[in-house]
Amino acid sequence: MDAMTIGLVAMALVLLLLALRVPIAFALAAVASGGTFLVYATRTGDWTPERALNPTTSVVFSNFFDLVHSYDLSMVPLFVALGNIAFYAGITTRIYDAAAVWLRGLPGGVAMASVMGCGGFSAISGSSIACASTMGRICVPEMLRMGYDPKLATSSVAVGGTLGSLIPPSVLFILYGIFTETSIAQLFLAGILPGLLSLAGMILVIAWWVARDPAAAPRASGEGASRSQAALAAWPAVLLFAVIVGGIYGGFFTATEAAAVCVVLTIAIGFAERRLSLEVLWRAVRESLVQTASIFLIAGAAKIFVSFVALTGIAGGVVGWVADAQLSFGVLMLVIVVIYLVLGMFLDPIGIMVLTLPFMVPLVEGYGLNLIWFGVIVVKLLEIGLITPPVGLNVFVVSNVTKGVGIDKIFAGVSRFLFVDLLVLVLLILFPVISIIIPGSM
C-alpha cells in the first residue's frame, strides 16, 4: 500500500470517527499516528514495523512539543481568560444592555440589540459557542416574555453568536494563523469589516422580518434607564475592544500583549466595581484552564495530522490535479465554498479547519491568492456552518439554554438569515479589499 492510499484511507477514517462523535483531538491524533507508522513501515515495499517505531514517535512528539511551545499559541489562554473574567465581571453583556435601551422602542429593537450584544460579546470573548450560550440565557427569555415570535427570538441569538468567529479576537483566526504561518494580528484586523458587514446584514433581516410580520416583535415601552446612562455603563467593553484593535493597528502591542493588557484591565475594573472577588476570579481561571487544555489538545493533534498529510503527499497530489484541470478562479472558489458548506453541515469548525487547510493552503498559494483574505473566507464559511442543519452547533446551544423552543423552529428562523450570510460571502470573495484594507494600511 503506497503512502497516498494510506492517506486517503486515513482521511475517510477521520471523517467516520468525527461523524460518530469521537472527540476530535483523539480522532486526529490516533489516525495520524497510526497512519504515520504504516507509511514508515511500508516505505521500503516490505512490512518492516521495527523500522517505523522511532520515526513515528519522533514525528508525533516533536510536532506536539513544537506547537505547545509556540509563542503565538500563548495568546489562546489569555483571550480565553479575558472572555471568562469579563463575563464574571459583568462586562461582556453591557453592549446588549445599552443597545436594548436605545432600540427598545423600534420594531424588533430587542432582537437587533441581541445581535449587537452578540457582536460586543464577540469583541471580548472570541468564542461563538460561548457567545450563543451566554446571550441565549439573557436575551431569549426577555424576548419571549415580551411576546416575540420564538423563531425570531432564538434565531437572532443563534445567528448573532456566529460573529465570535469574525470579530476579533477569534480563536479560529488564531488557529488559522498558526497553521498557515500568517500574521494573527493582521487576521484580527482583516475580520473587522466583514464582521461589521455581517452584523449589519443580520439587523436588516430582522427589520425586514418585522416589517412583513409586525406581530413577530411587539413594540416595547421605552421605560427604563436613560440612554446616556446605558451608553456610559458600556464603557469597559468599548475600552477593551479599543485596546485590542487600536493597540494592534497602531503597533503598540502584539496580539498576545494586547490580550495580556486587557486581562489586567478587566481584573482591575472588576475589582474596582466590586463585581469580582478572589473566589469568582479563581472560578473564571479554572474554566479558562479547562477550555485552554481542550484547545491545546486539538491544536496539537491537528499539527500531528498536518505532518502526516504532508508525509503522504496527498496535498501535492490535489494541487497537481487542480493545476492539470486548469480551473478558473470562479470555479475554484465555488468548489471551495461547496466543500466547506457541506462539511459545515456535519462537523464542528475546528475539525473542518484542520482537515481542509493542509490541502487548501497549497492550492490557494498556487493561484497566488492572499492568505489573509482567504483566512477571512474560511472563517466566514465556518461561521455559516455554525447555523446550518443538521449539526448547527449554535442552534443546539441556544436550544439547550432556552428550553421549550424546538430545534426545528430555530432552524426555520435561521434560514431567513442564511441568504444575507451568503450574500456577504459573495461580496468578500468578489471584493477582497473589504478584508485586506485595514491590515494593508498598518
From TrEMBL:
Keywords for the protein's UniProt record, in alphabetical order: Cell inner membrane, Cell membrane, Membrane, Transmembrane, Transmembrane helix, Transport
Summary of the function given for this chain in its UniProt record: Part of the tripartite ATP-independent periplasmic (TRAP) transport system.
Principal location listed in the UniProt entry: membrane
PANTHER family per record: C4-DICARBOXYLATE TRAP TRANSPORTER LARGE PERMEASE PROTEIN DCTM, SIALIC ACID TRAP TRANSPORTER PERMEASE PROTEIN SIAT-RELATED
Protein name: TRAP transporter large permease protein
Annotated ranges, domain TRAP C4-dicarboxylate transport system permease DctM subunit: 12-433
NCBIfam families: dctM (TIGR00786)
Keyword Isomerase: no
Protein family membership: Belongs to the TRAP transporter large permease family.
Domain of life (superkingdom): Bacteria
Classification via InterPro entries: DctM (IPR010656), TRAP_DctM (IPR004681)
Subunit note: The complex comprises the extracytoplasmic solute receptor protein and the two transmembrane proteins.
